[in-house]
Structure formats: structure tokens, C-alpha cells
Design brief:
The complex is a heterodimer of chains A (180) and B (188).
Chain A: H1 8-16, H2 22-31, H3 33-50, H4 61-68, H5 81-84, H6 87-107, H7 110-118, H8 128-140, H9 146-166, E1 168-169, E2 175-176
Antiparallel strand pairs in A: 1-2
Helix pairs in contact in A: 2-3, 6-9
Chain B: H1 2-12, H2 16-37, H3 42-58, H4 68-86, H5 117-130, H6 134-145, H7 150-157, H8 161-187
Helix pairs in contact in B: 1-2, 2-3, 2-4, 2-6, 3-4, 4-7, 5-8, 6-8, 7-8
């Protein structure tokens, strides 16, 4: 038995069709003109909300979105490293790695650089001045050697290639370099 | 769900036509949220486009642990909140001000003798919904126009089910109070 007027909660539950006591509410509505009036307002409100026309987007909306999609010729970028590597990237990566390897073989005396790190007992006695001297002598002996220029270009290409692969993707698919 | 899985997988494999189909399937849902939350103007369509671009960019993160519609609606809702935040428009303000005095929206052109009653009511209700805080607008829209459950709405807005229920109740009570007050003024 509902003695007072219906609460807003009861009206809403009744109209949502979830009121457990809908029979009691209906009985109350039969006897209470005030609540019937309030129900009319609620019904008008529900009708107005439910019948609101859907907003209309332009007919070419889908076209516009498709035109803005990043690199529509390819599938969405996978976030895994292997998923990100495509043929072009792989070629650039190999080129970069080749440049680094060639540079290491041609211009760096790897054994002398690696030795101090391999033999930790010799590390504290590393003659840093002799290492710097060695680098200086090497640089002084370059005299714009064409091979050095090629090496420099290869290094730049290599770094660029690696950066390209590691570049993460921002909004709208524009690759953003970690270096620039 | 199987159809959704196939649709997503085909889009991830680079099928453009499938993504276009996705846009057509969900543009009503997205536009309902965006048009409700973003003030009218060209920004509304721009934000709708942005939503679908985000859907495309992040589709590989969709794990099928919810409906695709819920996931897309969440992107739409968050994109709108980010937009409002960027424009410094109120998002959570006014939730506590629901009992404040209000000015009925109906103007000179809305007199009952000029428009039909139902059209007039719809106009008043729409205008009043526009004045609600975004959280209320979203709950009303998803519940009434998209027929979503409290659970789905909660997933979209990252709110507990009880809070969704409470927001919906308060929003409708507020609208009913405003509608009643407008009718009373017209009777005077």
C-alpha cells in the first residue's frame, strides 16, 4: 500500500518497466489525480527524449574519414617490433647495419678497444691519454679520405634507418622521430 | 561477437571496405555522443572524424572483452571530454547545482499557440538537456537513444553501475522539474 504520493524514483522505475511494485503504483495512480498529473509530465519527458531525431552527419562523412586515415594503403600499425617492420624498413635496417659493420671493420681497431673491457684487471690501468692519442692520430691521418666520407655517409644513413624503424607513431599516423 | 571479430581482423589485415562499413555501422552512436557533448558548430563533425581515426589507429588494442560498440563509445566519450578540457568548457561542474533556480528556455517563438504541444515539449527538453552537465547528457543519451544497460554505460564512462543509475535518475528528475515549471508558467 502506498500512502503518500509517488516518489520520482518510483515514477522513473515504473516508466522504465523495472518497478517491482508496479501493481501497487498503478493502484495508487487510479486513486491519486496529483500523481497521475505528475506521471503525464514524466511520460511527455520520456517521449521527448526517446523521439529525438538522430544527428545527421554529411553524406560524405565516411569518405572524409577515409581520406584522413594514416597510410591507408597499409594495415594499421602493429605495436610489436616485428609487426612494425615492413619491407622498406627492413631494407633500411640492413643498410644501416651494413654501414656500421663496414665502418667498424675499416676504421676501428676493434681488438684494442675491446681488450680493456674483456680483461677487467687491466681496466684501472687503462692509459686514457694513449687512447685519446690513438684517436687523434687516426683523425689526423684521415685528410678527407674518400673512404672516410663514404663511411660518414653510411653512418648517417644507418642512424637515420634505425631511427626510422624505432620511430613511434603519433596521432594521424605521422611518424615521430626520437632524434628530431 | 564473431562478426565483430571477423570485421576487426579484416580491417587489421588492411581491408578498407570493412573499415568503411564500420564507420557506417557506428556513426550514429558516435554522433549521438559527440553532438550531445560538443557545442554545435563545425567542431562536432571534426570530433566525429577524430573518433573514427582513433578507432582505426588503436583497433589492434581491442581485445574483444567488451562489445565493439562499447569500446567505440568509450573512445567517443573520452575524445569529447578531452576536447571540452582543451577548450576549458565545464565537464564535471554543476552536478551539485541541480536544485538551483533556473530560467525556462521557452521563448517568444515557443508559445503553445505557435507550435504543437509535442514539438514544443521536445524543443524544451532538448534545450534543457543541452544545459545539463556532460555526464548527465551522456547517461541520458546512451540509456534512451542507444538503449544501453547500466553496465555498458558504466564501462563507457568508467563509473560504477550505481553511479550511472544515480546520474540518470537525477538528470531525469531535473528535466521533469524544469518541464513542470515551464508548463506552470504557460498556464499563468
Amino acid at each position: 500500500m502506498i500512502s503518500d504520493h509517488l516518489s520520482d524514483e518510483q515514477f522513473q522505475e515504473y516508466l522504465d518497466g523495472v518497478a517491482a511494485a508496479s501493481e501497487l503504483i498503478e493502484r495508487h495512480l487510479r486513486d491519486c489525480p496529483g500523481c497521475r498529473e505528475a506521471l503525464v509530465v514524466y511520460k511527455k519527458l520520456y517521449t521527448a527524449i526517446d523521439q529525438e531525431p538522430a544527428p545527421t552527419l554529411p553524406i560524405d562523412f565516411a569518405e572524409k574519414v577515409m581520406a584522413r586515415l594514416p597510410e591507408m594503403n597499409a594495415a594499421p600499425e602493429s605495436k610489436s617490433l616485428f609487426g612494425r617492420l615492413r619491407v622498406r624498413d627492413s631494407f633500411a635496417a640492413l643498410l644501416g647495419l651494413a654501414a656500421v659493420v663496414v665502418g667498424a671493420i675499416m676504421f676501428i681497431d676493434l681488438p684494442s678497444l675491446v681488450k680493456p673491457f674483456m680483461d677487467t684487471t687491466t681496466l684501472p690501468h687503462l692509459p686514457s691519454s694513449s687512447l685519446l692519442q690513438g684517436i687523434y692520430n687516426r683523425l689526423a691521418g684521415v685528410h678527407l679520405n674518400p673512404a672516410f666520407v663514404i663511411f660518414a655517409v653510411l653512418v648517417v644513413v644507418g642512424i637515420g634507418a634505425i631511427d626510422h624503424i624505432l620511430a613511434h607513431r603519433e596521432q594521424h599516423g605521422k611518424p615521430v622521430s626520437y632524434l628530431i | 561477437m564473431t562478426d565483430q571479430r571477423e570485421l576487426v581482423q579484416r580491417i587489421l589485415a588492411g581491408d578498407k571496405a570493412c573499415f568503411r562499413a564500420l564507420i557506417e555501422d557506428y556513426q550514429r552512436l558516435v554522433s549521438h555522443i559527440v553532438f550531445r557533448l560538443i557545442p554545435s558548430g563545425p567542431d562536432q563533425e571534426d570530433v566525429c572524424q577524430e573518433v573514427f581515426i582513433k578507432v582505426y589507429e588503436h583497433l589492434d588494442r581491442f581485445r574483444f572483452d567488451a562489445k565493439l560498440s562499447t569500446w567505440i563509445a568509450r573512445i567517443a566519450y573520452n575524445t569529447c571530454l578531452n576536447f571540452l578540457e582543451k577548450k576549458r568548457l565545464p565537464i564535471y561542474a554543476d552536478l551539485a547545482d541541480e536544485d538551483q533556480e533556473f530560467e525556462p528556455v521557452a521563448g517568444e517563438d515557443d508559445r503553445p499557440d505557435r507550435v504543437t504541444e509535442s514539438a514544443d515539449t521536445m524543443h524544451i527538453v532538448r534545450a534543457e538537456i543541452d544545459r545539463l552537465p556532460p555526464v548527465y547528457k551522456t547517461v541520458i543519451t546512451l540509456f534512451h537513444l542507444e538503449q544501453m544497460s547500466y553496465t555498458e554505460i558504466g564501462n563507457i564512462m568508467k563509473l560504477p553501475e550505481g553511479t550511472v543509475k544515480s546520474h540518470l535518475f537525477r538528470a531525469r528528475r531535473l528535466l521533469k522539474q524544469k518541464l513542470s515549471a515551464t508548463y506552470q508558467r504557460e498556464e499563468l
